[in-house]
Amino acid sequence: MLRKAHLWLAAALLLLALGAVLPVPAAEETVTFHGLLLIPQPYLRHPDSFEALNNVQPGSVLLYNGRHRFVVPTARDGSFSVYKLPYGTYILQAEYHYFAFPTVRVDVLYRDTGDGRHEPLIRTSSNDYPVRQLEGTGLDEESPAMIPISAQHMYYIPRQQMDIVSLLKSPMVIMLLISASLMGLMKLFPEEEIRESQKMTREWQKKLMRTVSTNQPAAAAAKPRAITK
């Protein structure tokens, strides 16, 4: 019984030794991906960036494909690291306070060195138009993949200032100005001429009414009568 236990122990040690000696296939290995969000330095020096709420979690990075999904926080300066990342193609989306970043494509590859070994290779490119390669290898902290800012969120929009020119272009204001101008022009005429004009207007209206009233009986007389049997 003791001999069997020794045999099992020897077999287990042999398997462990073989596992340490035999190379692991490249497709089953993982790498560590290092990145950096290019946060503007004036923002990092601004007092608002030192608020307690901002220090809870400055930002986050989502890295995913059809098989894997990684979510990691960023440091205050925008740096982050994704550990144990398998080989493959990923989509990266980053968030950091008021800043927006482009969608990044991350290709985790490996290349043969010629002596039966292989080394990892990471390619990062912005997935927006135009597609361009990003700086940094992403394989170590000294050369992280640098992700630039594409836009800035405007959570506060200042109130529109009053503009005199746009106010004068309003139809209501134009009508008001025309009415005031006409009233001002009426005051420029002498009062006697205005009264004479009003008197002539009233006389013309009376003549028109008399003409209409005298024409109505004549029209009624000229109307043919209905013939009754």
TrEMBL record:
Residues 53-175 form the ER membrane protein complex subunit 7 beta-sandwich domain. Its main location: membrane. Keywords: Membrane, Signal, Transmembrane, Transmembrane helix. Residues 1-23 form the signal peptide. GO terms for molecular function: carbohydrate binding. It holds the Pfam family EMC7_beta-sandw. The keyword Cell wall biogenesis/degradation does not apply. It is a single-pass membrane protein. The keyword Transmembrane applies. InterPro entries: Beta_sandwich_EMC7, Carb-bd-like_fold, EMC7. It is found in: Membrane. GO terms for cellular component: EMC complex. Belongs to the EMC7 family. This is ER membrane protein complex subunit 7 beta-sandwich domain-containing protein. It comes from Leishmania martiniquensis. The lineage of its organism: Eukaryota, Discoba, Euglenozoa, Kinetoplastea, Metakinetoplastina.
